[in-house]
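Question: what's this shape?

___
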Amino acid sequence: MTNPKIGIIVGSTRPSRIGPSIADWLQKQLKTPHLDVDVIDLAQIDLPLLDEIAMPSDGHYELEHTKNWSRLIQGYQGFVLLFPQYNWGYPAPLKNALDCLYSEWRGKPVSMVSYGGRGGFQAALALSLVLRGLKFHRLSTNIEISLKPADLDSHGHFKAPNQALAPYEFNVQQLSAEFQHVLTD
């Protein structure tokens, strides 16, 4: 029997983003002998803005990039959406990636890991409405990472990611346990 697969979707595509370093750390923390975890970077996926003719809820995809995105997402049993807060909202590439599909998300467990100067609460609040609409199974463990200027270099990247993210290890362990409980029971 294969382990359930969780996809960490990196929701920011900015060239100077800190998301990939958080995703790498999350992946190491979430992975267990009973849970496989991959990073799905939207900057590498490079989805165009909603360019399918039919509504995603129809499930009729004509464009190859949408079919590929659908196949990729169908290979996962759950997701962590990792995103920064931009002006109290979440990044447009993440919204686009979610909106390109519909039934592929239905019923799958999801957690939000937001980050920003104050943790990204407003962005997570806004995204939670979208997750309801897409019929995700929203997990109770969601993490807000507050970025502290002392932990960042002049380019906005972590000086020492493991040290800066250490306060969130317990929360990630709780998330891992919740995924295991939901996906193996």
